[in-house]
Specification:
With 261 residues, the chain is mainly alpha-helical. The protein has one domain (6-260). Helices cover 47% and strands 4% of the residues. The relative contact order is 0.13.
Length: 261
């Protein structure tokens, strides 16, 4: 069916996300079932609550608290690409969806004006922009809600979401095609839950505010995962900010940095 509205496009994205999560779960099941059958860890199982009571090794799902994880990579690249599609195709009508696809297949060559709009005009996650962060939150909730639905068949371990992308964000950029946020093939993808490289142009406070919002922010009913704050990623997420040493060049800047921390 033709994707004639932003809602159509979002639903297509959601369908693909659910499919990818399902494929990851099915692939993980292969290794999980092999470990459960052939690789017991009796010494470790002796120290894990639940294993002795159930008579099951930890690799067989014996632990009282038994989870495994799905780690998302390129979160901000995904969010910024969705924001660019919405901005270029559906809001500004700067191009059609087939024209944007053609630009991506060409690695943006011959489409530099459109690429510049994607990079410099489209909204970005990491700038404390409520509209952009609202879509980022929607992406986060979709990923987390779908991940929580799954368990391993061999061990009944529940999948929980995380965003610890290690170094995959660097290496995978060399094989991933161009993305709608203006990135060309070969450039780094985004790291864990961090904004895309260079996108956080409004400073570290805006950067941190965006991250806080997509992680859940304050619970409306005051019942959070930590005090009254929510955490959508119980398996962890890394948020890295690099500071230039000049930020500590004088007492005024040192005081500002202390206030930020």
């Amino acid at each position: 069916a033709a994707l004639t509205t932003w809602d159509d496009f979002w639903e297509a994205y959601a369908v693909q996300t659910r499919y990818i999560i399902r494929k990851c779960v099915d692939l993980y099941e292969v290794s999980e079932s092999i470990r459960a059958r052939f690789f017991p860890t009796p010494y470790l199982s002796c120290m894990i609550a639940g294993c002795a009571e159930k008579g099951l090794d930890v690799t067989q799902g014996g632990a009282q608290i038994s989870f495994t994880t799905l780690e998302a990579v390129t979160y901000a690249t995904t969010v910024d690409s969705l924001l660019a599609v919405k901005y270029l195709v559906f809001n500004k009508k700067a191009c059609t969806l087939p024209e944007l696809v053609a630009a991506l297949k060409a690695n943006w060559q011959g489409h530099e004006v459109l690429q510049a709009m994607a990079k410099n005009r489209a909204p970005k996650y990491g700038r404390d922009d409520d509209e952009a962060d609202g879509l980022a939150r929607r992406v986060m909730q979709l990923w987390c809600d779908e991940t929580w639905k799954h368990r391993t068949k061999a061990t009944a371990r529940r999948f929980r979401p995380g965003m610890l992308s290690w170094n995959y964000w660097a290496g995978d950029g060399y094989i991933m095609s161009a993305s709608a946020d203006g990135r060309i093939k070969g450039q780094f993808l985004s790291n864990a839950i961090c904004p895309s490289n260079g996108a956080d142009i409004h400073g570290p406070t805006a950067n941190a505010n965006s991250v806080g919002k997509v992680l859940g922010g304050k619970a409306a009913d005051g019942r959070g995962d930590w005090l009254d704050y929510l955490n959508e990623l119980p398996n962890g997420a890394s948020h890295t900010i690099t500071f230039n040493p000049s930020i500590l060049r004088d007492p005024v800047h040192k005081d500002k940095f202390k206030a930020f921390l």
